[in-house]
Each structure stands twice: as C-alpha cells, then as structure tokens.
C-alpha cells in the first residue's frame, strides 16, 4: 500500500463500534485503542477497497479547481422559505401507482423512504391521507371544543392552545392501509409504494390530559370522540386511558406549524396507533361512556378474521421493519461493499433488535440499531454486506421491547383472513437482487 493519502474520495474508516462489520467490531473492543485504530483502518480499508464502491482511487494529478471556487455564489435574499437543491427534484411525495382512485377525494400520497436518511421525514414529504380533501382553515377563526361527560365544557382558540405547557415528541406516523396492495403478490415496485404511508415526525402540542383535566372528567367517561373539521367530518372513538396516557393535541411538526394537508391548525396525535385515529383539523373532543361505532370503526378500519368475523378497534400498529436501501427499483453498482439500511418501528414500544437475511430467510444476522432508539418511533438499522454478485433475497425482521417478532405473510395468514382490502400489513418485506444488481419486490414469492 502506498503511504500517500488519497484526496477527498476515500470512505473514512468506520470508527463507531456499532457501524462496523462484525470482524472489525471485535477489534474495537480491544483496550489498546491506538494499536486497534491502525489495524481497524486496515481492515475497514481492505473490506471497502476490495469492492471499490464509494470511492475511486485518487491519482497524483492536482485536484481541478471547480467553477464554484472561482466566483461568488447566490446572495441571501432578505427573507425566504428554503427549498431543496434543484438536483433533488425526484425526491417527492407520490400518489400510489397501484391503487387508482377514480374519485379523487379519498386519496393518499406516499413518502419517498428510499431517499430519506435518518428517522425524520421533512414536512414536504410526510405522507398524506385524507377522505375529503384538505380544508382551508383560518387559525384565527378555528375553535377547538371539549364537551360531553366533563364538569366544564371548554372552547379554545389557537392562541389559547399555544399558551398551555407543551411537549415535543418523536413518533412514527403510519396509515394502517400501508402495504394493502401487496399482501399476496408484488404489485408495488418501490419502497415508496410498498411502505410510503409512513413518516417520522417530531410532534409539538399540548398533552390531551392537561386539557381534559382542566375540563374535569366525569368518572363515567370511558371513551373520547375526536372529530375533524374537514369535508369528511372524520370521527373516531379512543379509550380514555390512551388519551390520558400520551395523546397530543398537536399544532407543530418538525419545528414549524402543521402543514395544511397534515391537519393545520390543530390535530390529534395518537402515538403508535393507526394513522386513522390521529384526527386532523380537530374541532372537538367529546367524553362518553361507550365507543360510538363510526364508519371508520365498522365499515372501514376493521380486519377480516378466519370464519368470517371482523376485528374492530385493532388500533396499535404492530412491530414492523423494511429495508429502504437497497430496495425495489434500485440498481446495485457491481459486487462489493454495501451498507444495507432500513427502518423499524413498533406501536407497542421500542425496537429491541432487527435481524437481516441475505438468503431469503435461511440465515439471519443482527443489524446495528442507530441511536436514538425511542418509544413508538422510527429506528434506523444498518448492516454491512459484501455482495458477491450472485442473486440474493434481502429481508429484515424486527423485534420490539415486548418480545413481539415481526411475522412473515405466511404467519399472518394463519391467524387472519387475507381477503380484499386488508389493513395492518406488518409482514417481512423481501427484496430480490438479481445477478445484474436489479432490486425488485418479491413479497408473497420468497
Ligand atoms: N379529519 C381527518 N382526519 C384524518 C383523516 C381524514 O381524512 N380527515 N385521515 C386519517 C388517516 S386514514 C390517516 S392515515 C392520517 C394521515 O395523516 P397525514 O395526512 O398527516 O399523514 O390522518 C387521519 N386523520
Ligand atoms: Mo389511514
């Protein structure tokens, strides 16, 4: 090996213990850190160099000076809302390519998870799901009401709401319809289409418990109705224990006010539960004794079970994961080193572990979980893979803090009926890689 330092292009050695391939990982535990660093670099270097992915060898020629070094750039305008680089125009939300809705009111758009680094989805890319379009609500005129079995019904303006002590919490946000086109056959091509009704958000607002305590809950109150101010007047019933536990009356997302399509000026956030219960454009909550059995609790958002029964109120999103890179529609650039990465989440708690298989589920290796690992939140996992150029089938399988293991489609079929428009698809997602490096969806086939 030459002692010249390659200019600018070599991947830096992976120093953090948890991002290392297994063999380097062991060395990191060595107490002799200086000695280790030398050896660790050599090992990481050889693993990466053997694959020549992510870097080209620097030559002895001087580095050319780009035009951007030879003139001044665009000055800062007096005020503006920043937008992504013009070179990132492909990173957009998309309506589904699979399930075409002829009447456009009940519709959805999906998050491009294949392009998302980390666990937070930028506001312009958070998936949208609405049943009657996005209403145009003036926050100065909007009112939010608490009534029903309370000692004192209350009306809040937005100015009133933001005066209460607030909380900000990271949570995943997922529609229970995520993946419903892909139970038995790979109808979707990309991870945006298979899993893009999923986003990671830092929600800000007032705990529902604070406002309900102020109204004073009647001891007979057991369920809470949430109703939206949109054309669908979307309404759901939530048990009061959940409402008092962690529900947020939210006005902020990722450092700014809610976007119109995500519930502006105020929505409910019901952490870890199906997106449908997080009622947007929230206009009232009412405390009652029983659930109300709304359309979204009877005709929709119920699950077919064996023997023709239908399960109601299955609102917790069970543990799930997906590999976002490499994923469907992507192309591997020759054999060698790849960092396989994806997202895992559970409505029942934290992610404890994610296993990854490269051979269609015969063998599994434990992936590294990247901090922070938070309750009911997206968790990023990563694992090193040296692709030998032969066909492979990649899968991830998450385990949550309750010990629940993400199932295969076959396992789900043993306990539920998979007929028609079925929600709550949390099965393992397989991606196949062929000898040309093309990645495709093989759900139900692998
Ligand atoms: N008022 C109202 N709230 C609603 C809906 C709606 O149509 N109207 N759709 C629900 C569904 S099915 C989902 S998955 C989430 C989607 O939230 P998002 O558009 O912010 O991603 O909002 C829920 N809350
Ligand atoms: Mo949904």
Task: Characterise this structure.
The chain has 446 residues and is an alpha+beta fold. It is 13% helix and 27% strand. It is built from eight helices and 24 strands. The strands form six sheets. The protein has a five-stranded mixed beta sheet with strand order 5-4-13-8-9. Mean pLDDT is 88; it is low at 1-51. It binds the ligand Nc1nc2c(c(=O)[nH]1)N[C@H]1C(S)=C(S)[C@@H](COP(=O)(O)O)O[C@H]1N2 and molybdenum atom. The ligand Nc1nc2c(c(=O)[nH]1)N[C@H]1C(S)=C(S)[C@@H](COP(=O)(O)O)O[C@H]1N2 binds next to β3.
Instruction: Give the % helix.
Output: 10-25%
Distance between the termini: 43 Å
Number of domains: 2
Mean pLDDT: 88
- Report the CATH superfamily of the largest domain: Oxidoreductase, molybdopterin-binding domain
**Strand order of the main beta sheet, please?**
5-4-13-8-9
Q: Which residues sit in consecutive blocks of at least 5 with pLDDT less than 50?
A: 1-51
The number of E-state strands comes to 24
Number of helices: 8
Q: Largest sheet, described in full?
A: 5 strands, mixed
Overall shape: it is globular
* Bound ligands, named by name, code or SMILES: ligand MTE, molybdenum atom
Beta-strand content bin: 25-35%
CATH topology assignment of the largest domain: Sulfite Oxidase, Chain A, domain 2
Q: Determine the structural class based on helices, strands and strand pairing.
A: alpha+beta
Briefly, what CATH class of the largest domain? Alpha Beta
CATH architecture heading of the largest domain: Alpha-Beta Complex
Radius of gyration: 25 Å
